[in-house]
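so im writing up the methods section and need the SCP-like protein record in one place, dumping it here so i stop losing it
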Amino acid sequence: MRHAQKCMFGHSSKGERSGLGENLYMTSNRNIDDVVAANEASQLWWNELKEKGVGQENRLTVGVFNRGVGHYTQMAWEKSYKLGCAVKHCSGMTMVVCQYGPAGNMLNQEIYTKGAPCSGCSGSCNRAEGLCNV
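--- predicted struct ---
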């Protein structure tokens, strides 16, 4: 992940991440363990759902996005199936950058399809997690 190596807290240009969504996290703790930093970032992003909600429609409207749930919705976006994260210890901060492909957060689209666990799988399924194996 080249963007994390730059130690600049801000989204990479769309050209640098061609077709990928991106979540960023920063902490002033330069000595934090990489796994702990990645976990903190993930929890912060996922908690946007609990704190701000997306509504029963489960659709990313401008109003929903403006609640500040974009990190959560990118993580939960059904059509994003690739994930890469990097943790970089920089001068004065530690950064976490996660990129998702294909990018999510498409306005007026469903965040994910509602249904019984594994009901939409074309192949096998991990029943314990309720997720399709891809």
